[in-house]
Amino acid sequence: MAIKNITQKIDMENLPRHIAIIMDGNGRWAKSKGLPRFAGHWAGAEALRDIVSNCSKLNIQVLSVFAFSSENWKRPVQEVDSILNLLLYYFKKEVDSLHKNNIKIVVTGDWEALPKRIVCEIKKCIQRTRNNSGLVLNIVLNYGARKELSRVCIDICKDVIEGKLKVHNIDEDIFRKYLSTKDLSDPDLLIRPSGELRISNFLLWQIAYTELWFTEVYWPDFKPKDLLQAIYEFQQRERRYGGLKNKAGE
Ligand code: FPP
């Protein structure tokens, strides 16, 4: 569908507040063009720029992007290095434009364990954009949901042992406060490009009721029209959260 047609179909009153994206398919995109894998990651960063800008213009509240998983360390060292260098470049180069556009950068995951030069740059970006009130760009880095949930269990146990928390008071709301995403709403829409139909250890607790949307398109080829298509299809879905459409059960 042409971008103009699809834009007209979108209900601006019913946008997802939080969109999450697993940016997948960079390697296959590069291979299909006879390029090295890192070229796919760089092209992926370009695609991200356009999607961030569109989410910001649409007044989406939060965009979470999976940039590096705690399992990605299993990749060859050259590829890990190229992704980390790309992240460094991205944080340095994009911060001015993100700030100008009132975008607030937050980072989720064990990012403080990354090389010092990256940690320093990330801290600067977070600090610089912390008072912005527009789109929250949540860059998910060195993150794995199982690790996060294990860490939450440990932190809860510690607080119980130290008497800060009673076991009988632990419920979903308390649990949520221990998550690294505690200040963000849960994703309403999760997009995974590249034809893979899985979640890959991304925000497992947070996506319990998220609408999932998959496309065959590789991430570097993911364009604003694909984002709009995902939003349009999201708006056609009925979210029941385990309940019924109405009390009569119709
Ligand atoms: C998955 O594609 C992608 C990654 C592991 C890295 C994602 C990183 C970027 C898009 C870089 C830009 C991000 C920021 C925040 C600047 P893959 O390599 O698994 O692709 P494949 O499945 O085709 O091999």
How widely separated are the two ends?
Answer: 32 Å
What amount of the residues lies in strands? 5-15%
Query: Total number of helical segments?
Result: 8
Number of strands: 6
Query: How many domain modules?
Result: 1
- CATH homologous superfamily placement: Decaprenyl diphosphate synthase-like
Cα-atom radius of gyration: 19 Å
Structural class: alpha/beta
Q: At CATH's second level, what is the architecture?
A: 3-Layer(aba) Sandwich
User: Assembly type of the shown chains?
Assistant: single chain
Level of helix content? 40-55%
**Biggest sheet architecture:** 6 strands, parallel
Stretches with pLDDT under 50, minimum 5 residues = none
Care to describe what's here?
- The chain is of the alpha/beta class.
- It has a single domain, classed as Decaprenyl diphosphate synthase-like (Undecaprenyl pyrophosphate synthetase, 3-Layer(aba) Sandwich).
- Helices cover 44% and strands 14% of the residues.
- It is built from eight helices and six strands.
- It has helices at residues 3-9, 26-32, 37-57, 77-100, 116-129, 145-161, 172-177, 224-236; strands at residues 18-22, 62-69, 104-108, 136-143, 189-192, 211-214.
- It has a six-stranded parallel β-sheet, sandwiched between helices.
- Helix 2 packs across helix 3.
- The radius of gyration is 19 Å and the shape is globular.
- The two termini are 32 Å apart.
- The model has no long low-confidence stretch (mean pLDDT 96).
- Farnesyl diphosphate is lined by residues 23-28, 41, 44-45, 48, 65, 67, 72, 83, 86-87, 90, 139, 194.
